[in-house]
Amino acid sequence: MTSYNDLREFQDGIRAILPLVLAVLPIGFVFGTVATGNGLSPLETVLMSALVFAGGSQFVAMDLWSHPAAWSALGFAALLVNLRHMLMGASLARSLGGFRSWQKLPALLIMADENWAMAEARARKVPLTPAFYFGLSLPFYASWVLASLGGALFGTLLGDVAVYGLDFAFPAVFIVLLMGFWKGRETGLILLASAVASLSVHSLVAGAWYIAAGALAGLVVAVAAPERKEVRA
After folding, report:
1. Do 125 and 215 fall within a single domain?
2. What does each C-alpha distance from 217 to 45, 187, 224 come to in angstroms?
3. How far apart are CA 199 and CA 99, in angstroms?
4. Over the stretch 39-94, which tens digit does the pLDDT of each residue have?
5. What are φ and ψ of residue 102, in 5° steps?
6. How far apart are CA 117 and CA 16, in angstroms?
7. Does residue 191 have a pLDDT over 50?
8. Residue 205: φ, ψ to 5°
């Protein structure tokens, strides 16, 4: 009975993540194209997607890529972009009570914005199971790596991928994810604070500091919002 339930949960996870798998394919393809355009080989591109597995930091790294590469600058930029994973991991850890100890680390290693959001949405309704989570995560991980390989091998055949509008796929995915967490005015204030802070810092400071600024501003507003409500009460 347990194995049947696990299989059903795994299949449910695959069905839940399938729309986002289709959405991430063009993003991964664009990354593979950009990476090889910056001088990475297809093997290096695939290894970066498989080992880093963080689209935002990978694109930032390509923006900062130079020959020879400034590894300290690339590493620091990736750190700034991926600091959000600490918060995401802490949030997800609350839902891993049904996971065995050896399952928790792999679950966090293949955590991305998309499968994290889907797992959090699932955990709000029913307990999150390992079978459902890995049903979400493994196809998503594989699709990102394979799409990166596809872009690395065939991206140059398409020319400028921006002509096809593929570069909009990245923000489109995050807009969809965001709507699943919309809580009204409070969410709007957090987004506004993040947008103002990130755009202001981006116009004034070089590098990836705007990402950290947007995240910090959003956190400050998120923490302060309940306090304002309590004062009014």
Report:
1. no
2. 33, 13, 11
3. 40
4. 899 999 999 999 989 888 888 888 777 666 666 777 777 777 787 788 888 889 99
5. -75, -10
6. 11
7. yes
8. -125, 130
